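Open question from group meeting: does this chain pack into something compact, or does most of it stay loose? Before anyone orders reagents, we agreed to write out a predicted structure and look at it together. Recording both the input and the output here so the notebook holds the full record.
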Amino acid sequence: MRTRTTLTRALATTAATLLLGAALASPAGAAASAAPAHRAPGEVVTTTLLDALDALPVTDEDRTGYVRTAFRHWIDADKDGCDTRREVIITEAIQAPAVGARCALTGGEWYSPYDAVTVTDAAGLDVDHMVPLAEAWDSGASSWSAAERQAYANDLDDDRSLIAVTAKSNRSKADKDPADWLPTNTGYRCTYLTDWTTVKTRWGLTVDQREADALHRLAADCTDEPITVTLAR
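Structure tokens returned:
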């Protein structure tokens, strides 16, 4: 099972801040902090929220040919009996559930940041793709291989890609981008925008003009925090 802790993310943010400060100390370093013109899977990019937004390519979206089954999801990549969905639910528990045969979950407690709701039954949770599958298709994934789409749909290597939230909030969001949907928990919105931008950066996805305008407008009220992301493609 994957491991995700608040301490890990705090350390990553601290490291990103130090790296960003060093980068800005020289013109060459400042250029290196922006999203790269030539991407390489596994490359680690350190930037900021606003710079990452500026670097996202803007183009029209196209949903032609989309079907959800184009993204094979909820696989058991490590063969431990728990699929991707349950891996996320287990990792994000505030109080760990008991894990039974075939990864049946009982007990436990979760906090859904979309709507600031505490959940005490895993059955009340959905695992949301931060950037929905349909949105990913619209934004470039239609040209990916089946293996790349599977990797995207089961991305456990970056804890911003998938999130356990209430089924109600996930279904309210559906496949909408931030121009059309934001978490009702206003205190979480800047994190949401940052994570959305990070996932798009990680996977080399585009934004349409309306989405780009909304992201820039909303991000103006957020701290221009450092972002460190490992490129997936």
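Observations to bring back to the group:
The chain has nine helices and eight strands.
The radius of gyration is 18 Å.
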